Each structure stands twice: as structure tokens, then as C-alpha cells.
Amino acid sequence: MSLITRPHRRDGLVLAAACGLIGLPYGVLADSAGLTMAQAVALSVFTFAGSSQFAYVSVVGGGGNPAVAVGGALLLAARNALYGPVVTPLLRGGAFRRAVAAQFLTDETTAMASAQDDPTDARDAFWFTGLAIMSFWVAGTVAGVLLGGNLDDPGAWGLDAAFPAAFVALLVPHVATRAGRVTALAGAVIALVAVPITPAGAPILLAALAVGPGMAVANRRRPL
Question: Count of CB atoms within 10 A of residue 203's CB?
């Protein structure tokens, strides 16, 4: 059977190509933030979480403390812990294999694996999609860093808007509920208040406090 004749492999490859395109603006922003090629690629390989990487380079590029940048990146990546119970039953192997699998645990690989009816296809979808996305993501990073080195002002091309635009897109489905709207509004207020009085990157961390009011609203509306 050909490498991409299986439907889930074709879908995974298309998804990986799309992720590679997103890696391009990340590479440009990483270069503008002062990261070297090696540092930008290392983040793509060892962090392998687009939202966290964008958050890190945005904070560092804005003059923020690296520790704050790491804190924001970890906060955004924390959701991946919820995917473990979904994917673990589909995988085989010992502790080392599972540790490697954890590195590839993303929104995309979880979705691809859980969408398969056959356990063998689920495992193949997870590994194939993960390896394909990492390959395209790193390639996009390299291309972005090279491109960034030739751009005098990345902002003139709108590439600096990639990070906030991506998060607006992620936010839209969650404001359909009252709890989601309360969380979004509270987070926005906290961030706006924090921006002029806290270091760069800190508003991202402080905005996480908005989860509290959102959960309170959700629990109050939940039937007893």
C-alpha cells in the first residue's frame, strides 16, 4: 500500500502542510525577537506547540522577561494534559514509547487518532500525523527565519498579527456560551488593566484568573 493511500494519512499530510505554513510567520517572529536559527528550531522540536511558541517569541520580542514568557507558554500548553487519557488507550509500548508519544500530543494528532474506528488506524494516524506535522513545522520555521533575516520590518507585512489573529480564531467557538463570554470579557478586562502596570507577558498569565468567574457562571447554570 502506498504511503498516503490510507485516508487518514492523506488527511494528516494536508493538515501537516497547513501547519507548515503557520510555522513560517513563527520563524519570522522568532528572528525578529532575536532568536538564532538553532534556538528557533530547538523550540519547534522540543516545545512543538504553536500557540506556546508564538506566545514565547511575542513576549521576548516585546522586551519581556524570559521567565514570564515561559510561564505564558506553559499555561497555553497545559490543555494538552487533557488529551492524555484520550490517546493513551490507543497506544502501545512501554514507558519510553509513551514518553516519545507525549512529545507529539497535540490538538491535531489527538483529533486524527480519536477519529479512527480501528485501533491500528488510530495508532498509525497519531504517529504519521505527528511526524508529518513536525517535519513541516520545522521546515516552516527554517524558511521563516531565513525570510525574516531579509525583511527590514516584518510588521509591514502583517506577520506580527499572526499570533493575536490565531487566538481570536480559537476564541470564537468558546464565546457561544454565557460562561465563555464571561471568561473572555473578564480576561480582556484583566489584560487591559495589567498591560500598563506589569511587565510584558504578565497580562497573559494574569488573564488566566478569568477562568474563575467563567467556572462560577457555568456551575450556577448547571442543573442540580
Answer: 22
For residue 121, what is the enclosing H or E element? helix 119-148
Tens-digit pLDDT profile for residues 22-81: 888 889 889 988 899 999 999 999 988 888 888 888 888 877 777 777 887 787 777 778
Q: In terms of Cα–Cα distance, which of 65, 50, 39 is closest to 16? A: 50
* 82-128 pLDDT per residue, tens: 788 888 888 877 788 888 888 898 888 988 988 888 888 999 999 99
The answer for residues whose C-beta is within 8 angstroms of residue 43's C-beta and 6 or more apart is 30, 35, 53, 56, 57, 141
In angstroms, the CA 210 to CA 73 distance is: 17
> What is the chain's alpha carbon radius of gyration, rounded to the nearest angstrom?
19
Sign of torsion over alpha carbons 210, 168, 15, 18: negative
- The Cα 168–Cα 220 span in angstroms is 27
- Report pLDDT digits (tens) over 128-142: 999 999 999 999 999
The per-residue DSSP string of 140-201 comes to: HHHHHHHHHTT-S-GGGGTGGGHHHHHHHHHHGGGGGSHHHHHHHHHHHHHHHHHTTTS-TT
Q: Determine the Cα–Cα distance for residues 163 and 26; give it in Å rounded to an integer.
A: 8
Measured over the CA atoms of residue 168, residue 22, residue 70 and residue 147, the dihedral's sign is negative
Q: Which amino acid is at 33?
A: A
